[in-house]
Write a structure and sequence with these properties.
five-stranded antiparallel sheet, alpha+beta, single chain, 242 residues
Length: 242
């Protein structure tokens, strides 16, 4: 006579416990992989933001001060500290973020507005509602958002205080400290970029970021931040003032 045999209650309980352990390990591995992916994705977005904004700023700074033979001069070219127009204000130190305005002879402004030929162009960079924007003089009604999530935009100006015919920034100062007899030969840019993601852990709000000497206290939120800086040497300036 054949007798049917099955699992005992103890064996079933052991199998259930082992299954729960395996399931818990799989869930933990999935959660860890998901968090790692989110961190990598957010870090990649910040890296792309930093490359994009620096590409735009460096491009204009390389052209700053350029004078073309066919353009009749009506205004000074270079880093501007006086207002170009009502919409294009001069470079200035802000309470939270600075403003950078540059001028050169070109065929388009920072917003991509085509001037139809070589003209005097001014472009201003500023932060509004957490984004960095550019506004050009060719069509000042067109404003282009360069990058979102900008919590700090700081600018320092390298001035040559020694009129010895040797090019070099002897000091880096804020816009208010630049005078007419101290030519700007380089510009130092600093930004604090932010990308939020609800999967990120909640920060404790104790970290402090420094952007060109300006302190920024990190709030308690679910965001990743990246501080970047770059010094750009200008190519076009008045050699008689060096």
């Amino acid at each position: 006579m054949n007798r049917q045999q099955g699992f005992s209650l103890v064996e079933l309980m052991v199998a259930l416990v082992l299954g729960l352990i395996v399931s818990a390990a799989a869930i933990q591995l999935f959660t860890t992989n998901q968090r790692t992916f989110v961190l990598q994705q957010t870090a990649s977005q910040l890296q792309q933001d930093s490359q994009q904004v620096m590409r735009f700023l460096v491009r204009d700074l390389r052209k700053t001060g350029l004078v073309w033979d066919t353009v009749t001069p009506t205004q000074d070219m270079g880093v501007l500290f006086d207002d170009w127009s009502v919409d294009i204000t001069g470079s200035e130190d802000g309470d939270d973020n600075d403003v950078l305005t540059v001028a050169y002879n070109g065929t388009a402004d920072c917003a991509g507005n085509d001037a139809g030929g070589w003209v005097e162009v001014a472009s201003t960079y500023y932060v509004d509602d957490g984004s960095l924007y550019c506004r050009g003089s060719v069509d000042s009604d067109v404003v282009v958002e360069l990058v979102p999530g900008v919590e700090s935009f700081q600018v320092l100006y390298g001035i040559d205080t020694e009129a010895d015919g040797v090019l070099g920034a002897t000091r880096y100062v804020e816009a208010d400290d630049v005078t007419a007899d101290t030519p700007v030969v380089s510009v130092k840019l600093g930004l604090l970029l932010r990308r939020e993601n609800n999967v990120l852990p909640l920060s404790d709000g104790t970290r402090k970021f420094y952007v060109l000497g300006e302190a920024y206290d990190e709030p308690a939120d679910r965001a990743m931040r990246k501080a970047i800086s770059m010094t750009v040497r200008l190519r076009n300036y008045d050699w008689n003032a060096i």
